[in-house]
Structures are given as structure tokens and as C-alpha cells.
Amino acid sequence: xxxxxxxxxIYDLDAIDTLIHSPTVKWFGNIRPKYVEKxxxxxxxxxxxMVVLHRETSSMIAYAExxxxxxxxxxxxxxxxxxxxxxYCLTMPxxxxxxMFFNFCVxxxxxxxxxxSILRELFYRENRVWFLITxxxxxxxxPTYYVETFDDLEKYxxxxxxxEFSVENNFNTQELxxxxxxxxxxxITYRKALPEDNDDIVAIHEYEYPEMREELGDFxxxxxxxxxxxGREKSFLIVAETENDCQEIETAVFIWLSTDIDIRFYVTNYxxxxxxxxxxxxxxQSVYVEMFNVSSVQAKNAACxxxxxxxDDLSAMTILGGLQKNDSGLSVYSGGKAKVSSINxxxxxxxYTSGSNRFFMRESLFSKMKYIIGKLSNSxxxxxxxxxxxxxxxxxxxxxxxSELALDAASxxxxxxxxxxxxxxxxxxxxxxxxxxxxxxxxxxxxxMLISKETKSIxxxxxxxKYFMPVASRPSEVANPEEVYITHRSTIFGEIxxxxxxxxxxxxxxxxxxxxxxxxxKSDGSFGSSTGSSFSYTSKINESAELKNxxxxxxxxxxxxxxxxxxxFAVYTIRCGNSAKAARENTAIGFVVLRQFRSHHHLHYxxxxxxxxxxxxxxxxxxxxxxxxxxxxxxxxxxxxxxxMKTSYRDYYFVSSPNGHQFTNDLKKMMTVVEPNxxxxxxxxxxxxxxxxxxKERLNLTVHNFYQDHLIIYRHKLNPTKWFGNSERLVVIxxxxxxxxxxxxxxxxxxxxxxQNSETYTCLPRVQVTVITMPGVxxxxxxxxxxxxxxxxxxxxxxxxxxxxxxxxxxxxxxxLRHWVHFVPGRIDFINREKKFVKLENSCEIYYDTxxxxxxxxxxxxxxxxxxxxxxxxxxxxVEINSRxxxxxxxxxxxxxxxxxPRTYKILVYGSNLQTYECIAFLxxxxxxxxxxxxxxxxxxxGITAEEKLKNPYWDKNLQYILDDILIDSGIELxxxxxxxxxxxxxxxxxxxxxVFEHFPSKKQxxxxxxxxIAFDEGHMAPRRKKLLKQCxxxxxxxxxxxxxxxxxxxxxxxxxADAHPESNSQAG
Length: 1069
Known about the structure:
Elements (H helix, E strand, L loop, with lengths): L2 E5 L5 H8 L4 E5 L2 H4 L12 E7 L5 E8 L12 H8 L11 E10 L5 H12 L5 E6 L14 H4 L3 E3 L14 E6 H4 L4 E4 L5 H11 L1 H7 L3 H6 L9 E9 L5 E10 L4 H7 L17 E13 L8 H9 L22 E2 L6 E2 L5 H7 L2 H14 L6 E13 L8 H6 L3 E9 L8 H11 L5 E6 L7 H6 L4 E3 L11 E6 H5 L1 E6 L4 H10 L22 H27 L5 E9 L9 E10 L23 E9 L7 H12 L3 E6 L15 E2 L20 H6 L12 E5 L4 E4 L5 E4 L3 H11 L14 E4 L3 E5 L3 H6 L23 H8 L8 E4 L2 E5 L4 E4 L4 E3 L2 E4 L12 H4 L8 E3 L3 H17 L6 E4 L3 H11 L8 E4 L8 H7 L5 H14 L2 E3 L2 E8 L6 E8 L5 E5 L2 E4 L7 H9 L4 E2 L2 E3 L11 E3 L9 E3 L1
Parallel strand pairs: 5-6, 16-17, 23-24, 27-29, 28-30, 28-35, 30-31, 35-46, 36-43, 37-38, 37-43, 38-39
Antiparallel strand pairs: 1-3, 2-5, 3-4, 4-5, 6-8, 7-8, 9-10, 10-11, 11-16, 12-15, 13-14, 17-19, 18-19, 20-21, 21-22, 22-23, 24-26, 25-26, 32-33, 33-34, 40-41, 41-42, 44-45, 45-47
Pfam families: CFAP61_N, Pyr_redox_2
InterPro entries: CFAP61, CFAP61_N, FAD/NAD-bd_sf, FAD/NAD-binding_dom
GO molecular function, one term: oxidoreductase activity
């Protein structure tokens, strides 16, 4: 029969209840579902709940439950292994990892073969499970409705009786039905590919990657097998064969392996130190040591980006350790008739004009602004680059040190060049193919996959990559380097087990908590020297304090657990090896610290979680700290499952706060991030509940205010993992509000009001999205450390508050898109629509299947002259607020103005919308005298009231009258009905000296001198971006991108989104 097996969800409850109570069904296992009410059926934890549907009729014919321990109430969940060893004489190697229990199954009598479909589906999902056990209890007299039937299961299982069983005296005993994986599953046979396999392999490629056949022809596999050159020995082509229903052998999988790898190239261009640099040593054999000069980069800590200390350090590094004052430029040269410019150290003759004289008074201000802008607008400011020498140690052989042959002989890696499966082959079984790869190279421990950025995703590669981890690339001159993924033999063959904390584990856990990434932190919290390191002192102090606090908390928790039997905390080490052996015989790869979570009811105020789940009140746990080697992330479900078996917790939470102490959870990417509520009520002030437990106070654990803090909540409810995402490469240009909302939709595409997916699966985003934006924009949006020195509550400060919908605001406040979305800083050079890639200036090419233009601006000058419009860098004292980065730059520019010209500065503001008044309020509350501000308002063309409300919700003329009166009363100079014409820069430097406006209707021009010009002109596209779009052939109408009703441009692969103009079928760029 043709059956479809899938995970049961909440909408299946009625059908399952009907099936269970149907008189024409058979069943076996736990009796609970037979008498429990429908609403409670899903409240008992099960690892898997599966339903079987008839493909033709879509009717439900079976329901099954599986768990990693038996449904025996009197038996503790983690004691079943001892129970089996005492009661039964079993010879198979059972373990917590390779065994699951088939606890319940109900099926229609005429569809008894549905059991086989259920068993196969479970084995597909659980590649490490070899044995499925069903426990049959002794028979007792009861109504027919409760009588179990094991005859159909016995067709696929072996029956085992307990030690006390006797045919004569004790035959009515408990029994075990054990299904062995390799008896049920079809056998897969691997062998070397032969030339006659060419057609079968090409047919597989035709389905998954037809471009390969188009490029290489119809016989490229046979040609590769029949090669006779020296490289043939390093290429291994393997086919996997299975037997179909007609007992015919079919080619199911094709694998292409290679040992041809340039180790020197990959060690130089990728971060491979933690993987032994892909070489090995042999105990007792001499070794070669080879030095490589490499560079590495990593994102800077947030403490050294936008904080006051970081910017003070930046200002102090401008020129000669600090900026000269205005009067320090006088020189004795030519009898005092010359000025010495601190810019480039040039001497400027005395025959200067009045305009240049005005600039000399602002030279120090210009230098500071230019330097800070140059740094904060450069991607290098946000990364730490380190030049270092690494030692590559490998076994010495017959070849001389440093030669390619010597490195090849010591290689500890092979490459998976390509893998593909037949259309009807279950992709989950490709794990078996990964096992076969390592069996083909028993002397090599690592397997690498190289993915070209130009190649589209292949379904078999996506499946196999679950067992690999990405490798970070080093800075290099290689154009468009391949993406490298790697896995280790232990990831595939090792058994993951959790062990309760023992005294000897304390030092192990402390070492794992420190980690290799902070090796320069000494035990006393100080730092060793780091040659060539560009980490700032502020960053190191911040990281050291966070690490020190986390280690202190973990140490105190371990002490409490070891000394207090009633401790509310629990600590487990995560180990890899043989789960049947003692903890000391397995390698420690991580640990977890947790306690009961009692604040779940507070989450409903800000987060979208199901209510009325009181049955979980005492079964929720909060993860305090979790460390795990990155190679074992794929085992997250096994780890949580084992943790639940040992602790009885069923619902795990991790709370991340940017404001409090930071704790590590290496598995948070494998947990479901809880989406904030899309709509919220007005915020209400709540006090943080007082911490009553003196132990927690002593531990310095963060007490979260769930009503006010911006928290990121991660959850794992022990449901099976399911990935949600797009299959094609999507590139987004811009990180605007519309882009944020769109990215949120992509990341949370699984979420719904009824929680159907989140209550059925552990929902994980897998989006192939790259966002291109200017350097610093993303870092500023997600920065939570900046504290305004003028404001008591930095969250309400203009620099941090976002006057947008909470749906957009929470994208940066209550989630971190950087976990799932790839952000690339840079300026766009051009867009190649034929080859479908975006070229960045002095950088890489980013390929796309779909390109989304979300690079509109909230504010842009619409009447700039051609020279100013096309300039790569605008004047340093010109400000347009289109992102939080621009707000932070404004803050430091204002501070520079107040420091350098405290008595003579002038700030010019241009605009009349709500954002203009917000900015002026910020200026006056952050040290600027109102009398030093000039507000120039452009003329506004008004229509009927309905049109005004439709066009712009940020402008109201009646409200404006009130605001203008307030500004005038405070001493701000107000100039009305003047449109911007141009600005006048210094002859030699990008610095605005004065701005020219034209009055309407008299057309009289007026100029204003200024030290800072802030503009809120309501343009939406920068002239340079407009020129770029024209060059690549995107159709425009003035400053708008023309799109259809689906936001599609004239190129079907390019879309544009922004604030729509209701009067035209166009989209603001």
C-alpha cells in the first residue's frame, strides 16, 4: 500500500481520537491513550508522534508514539538499561543512544502493513538507532476494547522473555519485542564506480544538478574513471546500490571523493588550527615543524565600537596623539604671516581669503570629524585583524620538510567533491553514505566539502551538510574563495552521553568554560602580550569581566551541587566516546548548567507563546551556561533528549540579555528563538522582583525584568528538529525598516497564531540570505552597550529609541538576525544582471537567484549639484539620519563641535517633519544652546486633508504651529518657506562653510554659516544609487523604481520594496 508517514500535529487530534476509539482497529503498547481524554493526549512527552495517511484518500490509518525510555511509570526514566540487564539475558549492545521504545501504536485492522512504514520512518529519522523495543505486559482479563495485539509487530521483531519465564510454571510474563534496524531496512552496498555506471550516475545528476551534464557532456563519469594521469590515484568514485521491490539492483547514490588537496593553501586561507591543520602525527615517529605566516580576523567586541571610552580612544589617536587647538597653528614662518595646517602637515601661505580664514578656525573640528567618520565608515574598524605565525607539525617521512609530497603523506583529510541521490531515495539515509566515506579512508579523521559560491544549492549537499560545520576564512587575495565545511570521524561514530557532576569534573568544566578563544587571558584576569593584535584594551577588559563572572558563577554552582543534595541547580558533563563505559573513559566535549525556570508566566507580556500549559509548570528548566564543541552541534536533539531523561525537565529556555551579564550557550542556534509579539500594549513599569534566594544573590546571576528588558528567548521543547527556509539564494541590498520586517518574516515563517509548528517541531531557520549594507550599520543597530552620558534612561534617548512599529523595533531589540542572516559590509560597484551577481568595491562578487532592493532612504537631499551628488564622501559636517549609526555619528559630531568651538558654533537644521523636531529636542537636551540652532523649514505643498494624512503621517500642520511656538520661545531661530539650493564647501576640504536657501515665493537667496548641517529633506534615493541602477538597466521614473503589483522590476529576478506611493505604480528606491 502507498502510505505517507509524517509527524502528528495539533490538527490531527480529532482524527487520532476517532481512530483510537474505532471498533475496527488493533493496538499495542501503553494503555494510557485508550482511556485518556483527547485534550490530554499530547501532554505526555513523546520523542516522536507519527501518523500514517493513505495517499489516495488522505485518511488516517495509524498513529504511533516513540520515546527514548519505556512507558513504565514505576521505572525511573534513566534506569531502563539496568532494568533490562537484570531482568533479561540480552546479547545485543543496547545503549541510551542506539535504542528507542515503541510505546504505543493503533492502526486499522486491514492496514497491518502500516507498521512497517512506521518503523522505516523512525529509522530514517534516527540514523543512530539500531533497536526499537516494545514492552508487552502480562495478560490480564479485561474488556475486548483494551486487548492488545502483537501478531503484526512480531513479523518484524524478535521476542525476548525475562529470566523468570517458564513454559510450565511462569509463562504469563512480561515480553520484549525488539526490531533490529538492519533486518528491516534495505541493504545498501557500496563499491567503486565502473565505466558502465556512467548512464546511471548521469541520470542521478540530471535530476539534482543538470548544469553538470550540460557543462561536461554525457560521458564525463566514464572519462573520469578511465583517466590514466597521475591525478587518477587521488580520485575515488563510489556508487551505492540497493534492491528494489522486484529484487533488482539499482544505483541509488553516487559519491565522489578525493585526496587531492593543497593543504598549504587551505591552512593559509582558512582557520584550520582547531582541526590540526589537516595533518597528523604518529606517536613515536619524528616530526617536521613548518611555520606559516597567516592573518585572522574576528568581529570586535561591542565594548570597543560606540561606547564613550572607545570613541575617546579613537579621538586620541587622530594626529600626533591628539588634536591641536585652534591657536596652535601660528608659526614664526614669514614673520607670522603663515599658518601651519595640522592636516597633512602642510604650510599654507598667508595670502588667504576670508573663506579660508573661516576654515582655519574650524580646522581642528574638521580633522576630528573626518577621522571619526573615516573610521566608523570603514569595515576594518569593526573587525580585529591579527598577523601571526602558526606552527604546522606533521609526521616526517621520506620526503624533505616543506615539500608538497611531505604534507600529502601526512594528510589527515579527504574531500567530498560531490554526492547525489536518486529521486526516490530517502535523503535521511545519506548519513549511511557519510559513514561509508570514513570507512573508505580509515587512516584519515577529517572530511571536507568545498562549495563554490557560484553553484546553486543541491538537495543532497544540503542534507549532508547537517553533519559538517563551516570553517572561517582568513583575509586573502583570493577572489571569491570557496566555502569550506568540515567534519570529524568522532562526529559520525562517537556516542554522546551526559554524566552527572563529580568532584574530578570541576577542573574539566572550568577549562571548557575558559575555551581556546580567550587563551590570552591569564588566571588572574590580566592579559598577556599579543604581538600584532588589534584588540583594544576596552574590549579585553569587557571580555575578561564577562568571562570571569561566568566562571565564578559556574564554580559556585558546582560547589553548591556537590555539597547540597537539595540544590536547585544541576550540572552535567557532555562526553563523546562509548556510552557504555565510565565517564573518565570518554572525552569531555562540553557541559551544561541549569535550574528550574519559574518565570515562564512573565514571558507572555512580550513573547508569542502558547498559554494554559500548566502541566509544564514544574517541568521547565533554564539553561544558565552550556558549552559544546562545534563539531557536535548536530547532536543537539540527542543532548536535550538525554538531559530530559536524567532531569525530567521537558521544556528548556535560555534567556539572553544585552544589558546584564552575558552567559554562553553554544546550542542556542539549535533552539527555537521565541518570536516577540507582533503587537504590544502600552508599556507599563514593573519593578524587578526581589531575589529571595541568598545563593543566587551571591552567585551574581542576572535578575531579568521581563516587562522592560530587551531579552532574546530561546526554547527547546524536545520536539524533533525541522528546518524552515528558502532554497534559493536571496540577496538584500539595505538594512532599512522594510528590510527588517521582511527578514523577520523569513526567519519566523514557521510561526502562526495557533502554534502548530512550534508545538510540533523545534523550528530552526535556514535562510540563504545575504544582506549588503554600509559598514557599521548592522553593528550600530544591534549595539546594546552604548550609554548616553546625558540621559538617565538610555533606552528612551534619541540615540537608542526607534520611532517605528514594535514589529520592526524588536528585530534588533528582541532577536539577533546575525545568527541566521549573512551580513556583508561594503559599497556596491555594479550589478551584473546576466551572471546574476553583485560586485562590491575592492571586494568579492555575491551571487543571487533573487535580488531585493531595500536601499531606500528616509531622508536624502533632492537638489544637490552634480559635484556634491556624485561625491563618494559627503562633507564631514553634513548629517542625514537614515540609521542608528548616523545618530551615533551625530552625537559625536555634536560633542566635537562643543569641545572645539564652545562659544562660536552654529548648527543648521533643515526640515519640517516630526523627525526634525525630535532631532532638535535631542540637541537641546544634549548640551547645545538653543540660541546656536537655526531651523530652516522648506515650503510644503498641501492638498486636501485626506491626501495629507495619506501621504505623510509624520507631518501635521496644526501640530507644527504648536511646536514652532515652543522652539521660538526657547530661543531657536526659525526661518520659514526657504528651499535648499546648495552648500558652499571649503576650496580644499570637504567641509561645509555655508548653506544657501531660496525663499518662496520671492526667490530671494539667503546663506547661513554653520559648523554642522543636519538635513531632513524627504528624498528617498541617493544620486549615486540612482546612477548605479540606471547603469544596470533598472527602469526608473525620477527617483522611483518602477515595479508591478508583486514589487517586481523590469528584471524578473530583481524586486524593490520601500514606502509605496499611492498615486503611482512605482516604488521608492
